[in-house]
Amino acid sequence: MASWVVESPFAGVSSDVDRRKLAEEATTYRMAHGIVMGGKGPHEGYTVPAPVTLFPSLFPLDQFELGMQIQPLVSELVHRVSTHPTFLEETLGGAAAVDAEFTGEMLRVHRTVQREGITQPLMLGLHRTDYMLHVQEDGSTQIKMVEINTIAASFGGLGSRAAPLFRFLVDDNDLLAGDKQQEGEQRPFVPDNQALQGLARAMATACTAYDPKADRAVVLMVVQPGEKNAYDQALLIHQLRIAHSRKVVRASLADIARYGRVDEESSERKLMFNGYEVALVYFRAGYAPTDYPTGPGGVEWSARLLLERSRAIKCPSIQYHLAGAKKVQQVMAAPGVLERFFPESSDAVSLLRSTFAGLYSLDEGSEGDAAAAEGSRRPAAFVLKPQREGGGNNLYGDAIPAALGKMSAHERSAYILMERLYPPAVPNCIVGRDGVLGEGLMVSEFGTFGAFLGGRPDQEPLLNEALGYLLRSKMATALDGGVAAGVAVLDSPLLTRTFQPHAAVAEDA
Questions:
Q1: 123 φ, ψ to 5°?
Q2: Which of 111, 117, 181, 441 is the 20 to 30 A CA-CA neighbour of 472?
Q3: How far apart (Å, rounded) are the C-alpha atoms in residues 438 and 441?
């Protein structure tokens, strides 16, 4: 049951006929404008419309603006953390000891490139910082950070296409005609979303920074075999080619191990793949253990090390990848740690910390013991999170004490405990391939995309900007999982200055 509910401005669209008509329009628009995905299950091998909400979801304008404002600070934080190898080693050492086949291997790659000397100091970060709204004691709302995605931050393409979809549905059907506004008050609106254009522009900027004369050097996009989200990637590939005349080559880690090479005889250490010089390596894979099926010492980890040793700019570098780990985010929330990375700006520290949810260590020792005991005693108040990306990995409710009860203190080090957020829910519907699939109270996760291109700590970044946003929504009763995992659906915020959640009552369940 949702704790807080927001009234929908679309309550008047209540008949099945009206909703079916809107859903049909949404499907036509999605197919006509490429808001599509690879099908699963009985639709395997087919292209299907990406699932969306029927209406854009109300969202407070001030919190949307705060997320966009803070994104460059988040990107700056990731960069500063990434240039402190000792901090990364100390922070992730416990998790690596437990999770040797993934976190341990990432640290091994990190140690190798640090020992040999970093060939390419420039790093491109295309980050997505995800938030949920939190209702405070006075009834006001504040975005609280769920995670920082530093690798394979997806849906910049499809998310950008969602905004005009919802603007079309609202405007073409005059859905806000009955929404009464006070004199001079702005009507709720769907904001523009330039994430796709910004991501491509940042990648093109990185390619130029690699070598202004190497205009035929390519972007190597590292992908998973059988990728279901290839259309989101394709939008970025096409934008790079059309707007920036830059070719993209897609390959798996296994492909790179077979066909990639670094010129070891030259100090330049150029990365070559199938005859192409590579300016930028862009990871849309490599974030999960399943991306390394041959295990430690296998071809995929060999490919990862090959890429890191090369002169090509990485997005992300192994340093950025590690800086986005859940354990690093938990340590960032501890007193005095942010101050270490922003000694010159108490304002930056305050602004960042205002968005942090409660994060607690489960490492061996009294602090971890106390957090584990509290998580077992009040499981509804927390989320148990492993060092994993990609959705579907977190544990909730009774699964928390069950899992903690089976772990040794040593094994707990691979997890953190996060305060569970209960965002306000909005009535909405899910539109799938064949129309309305379900309706009810839905909650949203708001993400902001940012680009950062920088090198050594004493140098000013070449690029640091917020690019756009992503809104994904799911039924309030659903737990973990994103759009690619089949739980959440694409949405767009309907921004308003008068966002007023009220306490839920029994019939809101």
A1: -130, 135
A2: 181
A3: 10
**Within 290-415, where are the H helices?**
299-309, 318-323, 326-332, 337-341, 346-353, 366-377, 399-406, 409-412
Which amino acid, residue 71?
Q
Residues 6+ away with beta carbon under 8 Å from 181: 187
CA distances from 259 to 253, 262, 263, 276, 303 (A): 10, 10, 13, 11, 10
Full pLDDT tens readout for the chain, 509 residues: 458 999 999 988 878 888 999 999 999 999 999 999 988 777 778 899 999 999 999 999 999 999 999 999 999 999 999 999 999 999 999 999 999 999 999 999 999 999 999 999 999 999 999 999 998 877 889 999 999 999 999 999 999 999 999 999 999 999 986 655 555 567 899 999 999 999 999 999 999 999 999 999 999 999 999 888 899 999 999 999 999 999 999 999 999 999 999 987 777 899 999 999 999 999 999 999 999 999 999 999 999 999 999 999 999 999 999 999 999 999 999 999 999 999 998 999 999 999 999 999 999 999 999 999 999 999 999 999 987 776 668 999 999 999 999 999 999 999 999 999 989 999 999 999 888 878 999 999 999 999 999 998 889 999 999 999 999 999 998 876 566 556 899 999 999 999 989 887 654 43
* Cis bond before residue 191 (omega within 30° of 0): no
**Active-site residue set:** 128, 147, 149, 154, 326, 385, 389-390, 472
Instruction: Tell me if residue 186 falls in helix, strand or coil.
Output: coil
d(CA 222, CA 252): 5
Residue 248 makes CB contacts below 8 A (sequence gap 6+) with 218, 219, 220, 221, 236, 237, 240, 241, 282
> Is 427 in a helix, a strand, or coil?
strand
Q: Pick the closest to residue 286 from 218, 233, 198, 225 (CA basis).
A: 225
Pick left, alpha or beta for residue 174 (phi over 0 → left; psi -120 to 50 → alpha; otherwise beta).
left
How far does the chain reach from its first CA to its final CA, in angstroms? 5
Q: Which of 415, 464, 421 lies closest to 446, judged by CA?
A: 421
Structure-derived torsion over alpha carbons of residues 307, 309, 313, 315, reported in degrees to the nearest 10? 50
Angle at 233 between CA 228 and CA 236, to 5 degrees: 165
> Which residue, 293, 422, 285, 397, is CA-closest to 3?
422
For residue 304, how far is the Cα from the chain centroid?
21
Q: Residue 105: which H helix or E strand, with range?
A: helix 103-116
Our measurement of the distance from residue 507's CA atom to the centroid of its chain's CA atoms, rounded to an integer in Å, reads 33
Specify the DSSP element, H or E, that contains 147. strand 141-149
- The answer to whether 331 touches 284, Cβ cutoff 8 Å, is no
